[in-house]
Design goal:
Elements: H1 3-48, H2 51-57, E1 58-60, E2 66-68, H3 70-89, H4 95-112, H5 114-119, H6 122-145, H7 153-174, H8 177-208, H9 213-242
Antiparallel strand pairs: 1-2
Helix pairs in contact: 1-4, 1-9, 3-4, 4-9, 6-8, 6-9, 7-8, 8-9
């Protein structure tokens, strides 16, 4: 074997090792994410079908209508607050703390989604869940395999997220069903773009942290959190569009 052949063999072996390491890393990320989605679903089901919990989350308004109680608003916004804590402290927290925060976030998200099982039929929830899973899988696969740099999507996606978030807060007070439906369609488009973009970022972070076991462990948790958010965001918006009300 000449020098060129030896170099080619070594390079090929290193490429296979990297590919195998990347696959293992992505599998870990997806396993974390799927476990978080499962935990959220279980908690949301029991919360949404518990009369005692619903009585705490909802209250009677002066005009006789049913609205969210103060505790209900606290539960709904608690996951958002926890995400900001994780974002600002992720570089100082241990890997184990990040994992605990991830499971805590998934649990709180389950509580905040209690209304889904109260508003929509079980059949439509399952149908939308499978549609979400298939759509998420396709966009994540695109983000993983594409050679195109999706960095240019970042500004559009994050500006869009903030715009939808602020508009949703305003719509909580004006209660426009037409605006809510429009926001849901925009949310689906944003979730699809985020899924592809974030999957590519998770892949890039693997190469960035390839020499650090602790860095890989931390990035797998944060990658799972990011993709978990994309999945839940897509599911919620599809549920508003396609869900059958009770």
């Amino acid at each position: 074997m000449n020098a060129w052949e030896r170099q080619s063999t070594v390079a090929s072996g290193q490429a296979r090792a990297v590919d195998q390491g990347l696959r293992s890393h992505m599998l870990k990320v997806y396993n974390y994410m799927a476990s978080g989605v499962f935990l959220t679903g279980i908690i949301a089901y029991f919360a949404g079908t518990s009369d005692a919990f619903m009585n705490m989350m909802l209250s009677m308004r002066p005009d006789g209508s049913i609205g969210m109680s103060g505790l209900g608003y606290l539960v709904v916004f608690a996951p958002i607050a926890l995400v900001f804590v994780m974002m600002f402290r992720m570089h100082t927290m241990s890997t184990q703390s990040l994992k605990m925060m991830f499971w805590g976030y998934a649990g709180l998200m389950g509580l905040s989604l209690f209304s889904i099982f109260h508003i929509y039929t079980g059949e439509s929830i399952l149908r939308v869940f499978f549609i979400t899973s298939g759509t998420f899988g396709l966009l994540s696969m695109y983000g993983y395999t594409t050679k195109r740099d999706l960095t240019s999507w970042r500004s559009f996606l994050f500006v869009g997220l903030w715009a939808v978030f602020i508009t949703s807060i305003v719509n909580m007070f004006i209660a426009s069903s037409a605006l809510q439906m429009a926001l849901s369609y925009v949310g689906v488009a944003l979730a699809l773009g985020l899924t592809a973009y974030d999957t590519q970022k998770v892949k890039e972070l693997y190469y960035h942290n390839a020499g650090s076991p602790d860095g890989l462990a931390r990035s797998s948790v944060m990658g799972a959190l990011t993709l978990y958010f994309d999945f839940i965001y897509l599911f919620i918006n599809l549920m508003r569009i396609m869900g059958d009300r009770r």
